[in-house]
Each structure stands twice: as C-alpha cells, then as structure tokens.
Design a protein that fits this description.
With 222 residues, the protein is mainly alpha-helical. The chain has one domain. It is built from 9 helices and 2 strands. A two-stranded antiparallel ribbon has the order 1-2. Helix 1 runs antiparallel to helix 6. The longest helix is centred in the middle third of the chain and has 33 residues. It is flat and about 55 Å long. The two termini are 37 Å apart.
Length: 222
C-alpha cells in the first residue's frame, strides 16, 4: 500500500461522492420528510455508506474470483452506462414533444428513520452499476495486492468520502435550518409545479444526442 495508491483511491471516492441520486434524496428528505427530517436523512446516508462498504468488501474478499470479475465489470459497465444514458436522453426527447405537468415533489407518510436505512441502501445499490470510480478503485486494490485488513480499511474510508457531500448538506441544514429550508423549498417548488412546455426542437436534439451517446461504445470498438 503506497501513498500514490491511497491518493488515487481517495480521488476516485471524491469523484464518486458527487452522486445526484443520493444528494437529491437527502435534499428531499430534509425538506419533505413527515417526521424527524434530520435523523431520517442521516439514517439514509448511513444506509448508503453500508451498501458502498458492503458491496466493495464482498468483491474485495473474493480476491481471486473478483480480480477477473471486477475488470470485466468495469468494461461492461462502460458499455451499459452509455447505452442507458442514451436511452434516457431519447425518452426525455420523446416526452418533450408534448406539454406535460410536472410531478409534485413529496414523500409518503410512512417514510421514517426506520424505513430510511433500507431506502438509502437500496437507492445506492441501484446506482452502483453507474459508479465507474467505485469499481476502478476496487480493481486498483486487487492489482496492488493489499492485505485484507488494509483493503477493508480503505474501503471504509471510501464509503465515508462517498457520503461527505450529503453530510455537508446535512450539517448546513442543521446549522442554518430556516435559510436551507427556504432555499430548498424554492428549488422543489420550481421543479415540482407548473408545466414542462413542449419543444420539438429540444425533443429532436435530445433524441439525436441520445443516439450518439448510446452508440459511442460501438465506435470505440472499431
């Protein structure tokens, strides 16, 4: 285990930490959780951290089998992610052919700290296939041949770094509750009310862009 390896993995963790799914979830919980929003958001972040550490530990502890599997996963995810991103853009383009109301942003009454832990774990687990830095970091650990204890410690650190933006947002929400709540309210009101106006120009542009993005991996194979 060397300093360059640790710095590289820390950099990958920082890159991976700006995860829109988790950050948006914490923002929504702070704003709209029916009860104990701070505790609920914190438990959600804990669920995310447990998934990041647990999945990474499972791959790392499988060392022999995982070393080849992780390399294949990294390559496969690159292709799947481009295809998925392209599909999302194409679907978004199709939807822009007509005007539609925005869906109000809200959380159900049953969303509590008890349900937040599995929610955070499942949310992060569902997003892991898009986590390029995550699999690259595990691949680096396996190739470097670090010990089991050191590898697990590094993965725990990775999980902490992964959650830092959410923890910062949570801290700001605690220290400046009224201002944070007012800002988030303006954002969610803007995103959750009114109509998305139809725009054929934007629709066609999104569909064409989606086609290009989805086909990028196939161009790379040539």
């Amino acid at each position: 285990m060397t300093a360059p390896l640790l710095l590289a993995i820390a950099g990958l963790a920082v890159l991976d930490s700006f995860n829109p799914a988790t950050i948006v979830a914490v923002t929504l919980i702070l704003l709209a959780a029916p009860r104990r929003p701070v505790l609920t958001a914190l438990v959600t972040v804990l669920g995310a951290a447990l998934t990041v550490f647990g999945a990474g530990a499972a791959l790392f502890l499988g060392a022999g089998a995982a070393s080849g599997a992780v390399d294949g996963i990294v390559q496969g995810i690159r292709y799947v992610a481009f295809a998925a991103a392209g599909l999302v853009l194409i679907l978004a383009g199709i939807r822009r052919f007509r005007t539609r109301p925005r869906t109000p942003i809200a959380l159900p009454a049953w969303f509590t700290p008890w349900t937040a832990l599995p929610f955070g774990a499942l949310l992060t687990g569902a997003d892991l296939p898009n986590a390029f830095p995550y699999f690259i970091a595990i691949e680096r650990l396996l190739n470097a041949g670090v010990t089991t204890g050191a590898g697990l410690l590094i993965l725990a650190g990775y999980a902490v770094i992964y959650c830092l933006p959410c923890l910062v947002l949570l801290t700001v929400g605690i220290l400046s509750h009224r201002r944070t709540h007012a800002l988030l309210s303006r954002i969610t009101t803007r995103l959750g009310t009114g109509d998305v106006t139809a725009s054929p120009v934007i629709a066609v542009a999104l569909i064409l862009l989606g086609g290009v993005v989805a086909s990028l991996p196939f161009w790379a194979l040539r």
